[in-house]
Amino acid sequence: MTTTDHHGELAGVAHVLRAVREQQPLVHCLTATVSMGIVADGLLAAGARPMMTETLQEAPTLDSVADALLVNLGTLSTDGMEGIPATVEVAVREERPWVLDPTAIGIAPVRTPLARDLLAARPAVVRGNASEILALDGDGTGGRGADSRARPEDAEQAAARIAERTGGAVAVSGAVDLVLSVGRRSRLARGSAMLTRVTGTGCLLGALSAACRAVEDDPHTAALAASLWMDLAGEAAAARAAGPGSFRVHLLDALDEVGR
Fold first, then answer.
1. Is residue 187, in this structure, part of any structural domain at all?
2. Sheet holding 125-129: strands in order across?
3. DSSP labels for 34-55?
4. Exposure winner among 41, 80, 88, 182, fewest CB in 10 A?
5. How far is CA 132 from CA 63, 112, 196, in A?
């Protein structure tokens, strides 16, 4: 199946989707335990390969064989608190692209300062909802857990400041997705509200962003490709699904089909 793309957005990033499928990048995912299943299955459906180890004893070493790294702060564990900084240090030293997903930061007393500290390591892509991006920039207390209280456009200036600091791209997810980098702005009015009714779709988008950055040197193009890939897959899955349960299954099928 070729997903319908009336606005031609897919043409500009189709080479990224092809490269993911051809190169099958290995993505080291330090991600939320609640979303590991859909993150792993989603990466495999898209053509990439997942690896998930977060302990200080193993994660930094194993990261040396990965093509990209995802750091997701959802359900942050003691192992993650210790393993994340050391693993990011290895990725930076070995010039491996990495993605920061500051899930549910804001009032959280551990993950919020950790996320802000990690910005100094200049992630290639930062992916979050509007409340998370505002909190990461220091201008807000976050949302309600992983749910945003703000709209993507409310976080545009914060995203632009973060992009200036990192030199990479910032993807703000919502009803309308925004991707910003220095001097560039992309807007995607695509996707499905059903994506918000299945746990871990945002985490999966972060992992997909890492897979795309592994094969695409330009962070903005990589982030845009991942966001559009997820949006189009969400649309296709919603058209087939009877509810959230079947949507999850159809989403995996659609990730495999988009752009073919």
1. yes
2. 49-51, 26-30, 68-72, 98-101, 125-129, 169-173, 177-181, 184-188
3. GGHHHHHHHHHHHT-EEE----
4. 182
5. 26, 9, 15
The answer to whether residue 10 sits within a structural domain is no
Tokens of 107: 């009032």
The C-alpha angle 75, 80, 86, rounded to 5 degrees, equals 150
Is 11 inside a domain boundary? no
What's the domain count of the chain?
A: 1
CB distance 206 to 101 below 8 Å: yes
Sort strands 177-181 and 169-173 into parallel, antiparallel or unpaired: antiparallel
CA–CA distance, 153 with 49 (Å, rounded to integer): 33
Examine residue 260 and state whether it is found in any structural domain, yes or no: no
Per-residue pLDDT of the chain (260 residues; tens, 9 = 90+): 334 444 477 999 999 999 999 999 999 999 988 999 999 999 999 999 999 999 999 999 999 999 999 999 987 888 888 999 999 999 999 999 999 999 988 888 899 999 999 999 999 999 999 999 999 998 655 555 455 567 888 999 999 999 999 999 999 999 899 999 999 999 999 999 999 999 999 999 999 999 999 999 999 999 999 999 999 999 999 999 999 999 999 999 999 999 98
CB contact set of 180 (below 8 Å; sequence gap of 6+): 156, 159, 160, 163, 169, 170, 172, 186
**Single pTM value for the model:** 0.93
